[in-house]
Amino acid sequence: MGQKVSGLTNKVTRSVSSLFSHSEETQESALATQRATPFVYKRTSSMFFDEEGDLAHEFYEEVFDAGHSRMKRQYKNLRPQGEVELPYPKLHPDLPIVMCELEAIR
């Protein structure tokens, strides 16, 4: 995930810096990096599948000890859900562009 973030940041930074320079080489690289977007469409899920295919953040099983029952958290046999699509795009948190500036209220 960190490589995706740094790659996106480098692309956006290069495309923004190319707006202020006028060399032909920079303009060509700017055209190539215009496809980079400041939006995030997927994220890594924090949920897991268990052996039965159920999906949840945590799984517990009931354990009986000397006449008492307690819930014990399961850590084994869980698979991560992986990447999930976001319902709507979000701005990347490392976007190196000032979106708006506010003046101080006096």
Automatic annotation (TrEMBL):
InterPro entries, per database record: FUS1
GO CC aspect terms: mitochondrion
GO biological process: regulation of mitochondrial membrane potential
Pfam families: TUSC2
Protein name per Swiss-Prot or TrEMBL: Tumor suppressor candidate 2
